[in-house]
Amino acid sequence: MALLNILRYPDPRLHKVAAPVTEFDAGLRTLIADMADTMYDAPGVGLAASQVDVHKQLVVIDITETKDHLQVFINPQITWASEEKQVYDEGCLSVPGVYDGVERPSRVKVKAQDADGKFFELEADGLLSVCIQHEMDHLQGKVFVEYLSPLKRNRIKARMVKENRGIEREAALKAAGRRY
Ligand code: NI
Fold first, then answer.
1. How far is the CA of 179 from the centre of ligand 1 (A)?
2. Which residue(s) pair with 108 in the sheet?
3. pTM assigned to the model
4. Is 135 a catalytic residue?
5. Residuewise pLDDT in 10s, the chain (180 residues)
6. 176 alpha carbon to ligand 1 midpoint, in Å?
């Protein structure tokens, strides 16, 4: 089990656009396992590779209460979205503690590949639909706070910058401590 470091907003690396996965090899399998471990540990219902600074089109999701149904989406594409929209309170492991309403299509059809490179298509509604769209935004370098008003977004950014500085300071102190 390996836990990966989750980038925190407004880290500029969260805005990189992910490249398609072309090799369905052992390295990919390890990355999927590590991302799943990281998501379950956080805990969260979804994680995009972009959030762990790997800029490949790969998303892991598990929306079950029992945390025993891992869904892997590689090179995902939305092939259809309903005209009907819904507003869901979203959160993000890269913006901990922030939840706000985002309007998105209620239902989507997604085409993607699994860990073996096999194509599949599914239709999602409810939380799964929200989660897929949220994680796919990450692959395009988009974080959900970008849907909020500039005022809200700037407040969140300021708070995160302050928190991130505190975390960095603590890490530096710990690292310095180890040298003595
Ligand atoms: Ni997120």
1. 36
2. 81, 124
3. 0.95
4. yes
5. 799 999 999 999 999 999 999 999 999 999 999 999 999 999 999 999 999 999 999 999 999 999 999 999 999 999 999 999 999 999 999 999 999 999 999 999 999 999 999 999 999 999 999 999 999 999 999 999 999 999 999 999 999 999 999 999 999 988 888 765
6. 32
